[in-house]
Amino acid sequence: xxxxxxxxxxxxxxxxxxxxxxxVLACSGDASVFVADNASTDGSVxxxxxxxxxxxxxVMDKNYGFAGGYNVAxxxxxxxxxxxxxxxxxxxxxxxxxxxxxxxxxxxVAACQPKIRALKNREAFEYAxxxxxxxxxxxxxxxxxxxxxxVENDEGQxxxxxxxxxxxxxxxxxxxxxxxxxxxxxxxxFAHNEEIDLCWRLRNMGRRIYVVPQSxxxxxxxxxxxxxxxxxxxxxxRNNLTMLYKNLPDKELGKVMRVRWMLDYVAAWxxxxxxxxxxxxxxxxxxxxAFREIVKSNPGIRKSAREKVIEELKNEQTLAPYFILKxxxxxxxxxxxDIK
Length: 340
Prior knowledge:
Layout: E1 4-10, H1 14-27, E2 32-37, H2 44-51, E3 56-59, H3 65-73, E4 81-85, E5 89-91, H4 95-105, E6 109-118, E7 133-135, E8 141-143, E9 146-147, E10 150-151, E11 162-163, E12 171-175, H5 176-182, H6 194-204, E13 208-219, H7 230-247, H8 250-273, H9 278-297, H10 301-306, H11 324-330, H12 336-339
């Protein structure tokens, strides 16, 4: 029986599957490969049946998004490890075995990711995951190898396997037992920030998250929603606020949410005045309203997340002790190595 199941979530990604599946099949040993289809209309399922009969398909009745789609798809997976992989990822020889070996040696690790480099600029890290992720004191995500729009070239500077705050959903290996204990992604997120929320909840339960840079993959990135898309802006702001509200310790919650209230509206007016981007301006305001509605309509959302926090971590400051916006824009620290 295979130790790992690779599950690729697909929505109208026929061309991506045709291009990148062959390497997944060739470089992944005896892993079982699944494609979970979110009700595509581009002939993806038919193409898989014809060109990749060895790939198992999970066909869903509608588009559940990234978070909900994986929650549905992984219900039927029973291998020790589950590898969530974007359809636009090019894998390399030994990538999966390296991750499996690391997880085998570290029972306290719930999830890990490979080093992710950009497919279009193969010497550079990829924006979405780079070499492992962190969150600053007010909830802004960044990576080893990428802070905001500054993406570093990979020169081996982040090749050590280290504990991180979050691992990217573009290529995420997770133990099935940890996935079940955490109850998977928060499906209400639909897409964006769901993997950070999951990793945070796992850490609050005493589990650890790692990046294993000896495993390397290449990611196209932005294949679903391009940067600057108002829908993406809305999801990022709404979900980030929801994640903070759910997971922050009591002693940090009030201050962080007050500061974010101010920073979010500053960001909205900046994008309107400086960038003349009306779509993103409206999206940020809509995200703030949507977050308030989530809190109002789901009064137990924070309690359900916090009740699983182990005692010794209930007051732990999980977030980094600095403000990444200040470090980046005022102090000119553009690289992770400058601030760590």
